[in-house]
Amino acid sequence: MNLESLNEQVSIGHSPSWGATHVPSRDLALTPTQLRVMEGVQSGMPNKQIAFALGIAEATVKAHMTALMRKLNVRNRTQVALVARHFASVEAD
């Protein structure tokens, strides 16, 4: 998954396939770390493993997850992974 492309797709408002209630805002801008955390979640990594891979504290990963869920208008990490998967598939098209 290309992180820059994913951020561009999210920021221009591509909507996930599960419905309009979960459409990210058009002014959304994910940080590079948020994108890497999102990539880890999409890969199925737990917070502790993401933290180790990124060289940050697990609490920092949790803070990024909270920000991601708020920005993406989703309620859990499964939905974060689905958003990441959706945008990865849009990129492949």
Automatic annotation (TrEMBL):
The organism's place on the tree of life at top rank: Bacteria
Keyword tags: DNA-binding
SUPFAM superfamilies per record: C-terminal effector domain of the bipartite response regulators
Keyword DNA-binding: yes
GO molecular function: DNA binding
Keyword Cytoplasm attributed: no
GO biological process terms on file: regulation of DNA-templated transcription
Transmembrane segments: none
InterPro entries the record matches: Sig_transdc_resp-reg_C-effctor, Tscrpt_reg_LuxR_C, WalR-like, WH-like_DNA-bd_sf
Pfam families in alphabetical order: GerE
Stretches assigned to the HTH luxR-type domain: 23-87
Protein name: Helix-turn-helix transcriptional regulator
